[in-house]
Write a structure and sequence with these properties.
The structure holds 2 protein chains of 2 kinds.
Chain A (H helix, E strand, L loop, with lengths): L1 H20 L1 H20 L5 H5 L1 H22 L6 H6 L5 H30 L8 H25 L6 H28 L9 H27 L1
Helix pairs in contact in A: 1-6, 2-4, 2-6, 4-6, 4-7, 4-8, 6-7, 6-9, 7-8, 7-9, 8-9
Chain B lengths: L1 E12 L2 E12 L3 E5 L6 H8 L7 E6 L2 E2 L3 H4 L2 E4 L11 H11 L5 H11 L15 H13 L5 E5 L7 H16 L3 E5 L3 H7 L2 E6 L2 E7 L2 H5 L3 H6 L3
Parallel strand pairs in B: 3-8, 3-9, 6-7, 7-8
Antiparallel strand pairs in B: 1-2, 1-4, 4-5, 9-10
Chain lengths: ~230, ~230
Amino acid sequence: MNFFRQALAIAGKDLRSEVRSKETVNASLSFALVILLLFSFAFDPSAEATREMAGGLLWLVFAFAGTLILNRSFARELVNDCLDALISSPASGAQLFLGKCLANYVLLLIVESVCLPIFIVFYDAHWPKQAWLLFVVMLLGTWGITVIGTLFSAMTVNLRLRELMLPTLIYPMLIPALMGAIQLSTVLIAGEPLGADNQVWFRLLVGFDVIFTILAVGLVEIVLVG
Amino acid sequence: MTAVAIEGVWKFYGDYPALKDISFNVDGGACLALLGRNGAGKTTLLRILAGLSKTAKGSITILGADARAEKTRQKIGVLGHGIGVYEELSAFENLKLFAKLYDMSDPQKTALEWLERTGLERVKDGLVREFSRGMRQRLAVARAFLHNPSLLLLDEPFTALDDRAIAVLQGLLKTALEEGRTIIMSTHQLREALELATDVALINRGKLAFRGERTREMLEDPGWLYRHYGEA
């Protein structure tokens, strides 16, 4: 239980700091809304072709906006050398990582929950019949973005160009998860039922999340201490 | 009993050797003043002892275990260059967080106790970003001491402290020594350090230049050690 107690203490600390400063959620949300607006100008929302790429547009917004949250995840620990205080505490790298992941996950889901209804309005889409399935896809896809993003946020925290490096490094890694989330979201937003041929994307998403969570938890100690 | 055993430690930054074959022991209950000029390698050695960095070669044993072992970190208190507390949290929230991370049985009680000991109980709900420099430093001291560590690693602990924070820290260090805890502190403030120290280690350009007990001669003339063992 101590493992989760310490991870939750770190997550709680990050969320409390964010509630007070609102530095990343405000930036991420504003950015997401601007992209949604620009995409609605760039693509005719009523066109069939646009509906066919609805999932892609949605997940591009989530991925771009998410980077702003993930970039700050470890960078905020540099102020007052707080990262050193955390690493020298008995909390393991895995606890630190999972605490950070949980906080980032919650923040990303908040941004996505605001963006989804706006997306549906802008793109003249209908609320999906299987909305709960879309939420499951969002939960799985967002966890994938969070795990990879948090690990690379730790890796790039001491780089001068970390704001540029993080998206450059994580987007290629995220391709499998984003492909799965995009395919499934497009089908669900179009109001079509998920067929057997879509099961493979679900399995891909779940597999991606499990594999990269285990890898990240195993590697984070090396990333943080060397 | 040996509290810290440093055996043939090397550390490189790129090709530059920051530490060259450093070996010495520190006995339990001793207070070691780690001396040396800027860039000598004092902070590098303290970071390795704190588990914040790894050696290229050599080994470190702290209280009988590896420096990065969880049970070792439980027994170490680190006060580095940064204060290590969060600007967006209150003093109480900061100490409660670290009390949880150090697995204290009653984090709330521990946090309140240390706010009182460092004279911050009146501002316990104030955010750190609103604190004066002196208040922040006292909070940092409380963070480093709150889990009653057996080994204290202090990097330039008296630098930039105000009078009240110096008094708080000196009081805590004297109590820690009376209780048999081990202290390793790097410093440029020779007089304050030597008054407290039982042992001295001088590092010169990454090499151990002197290791021995603090003598009366050093107290009377703090510059003596540098003149005899340091660079000209």
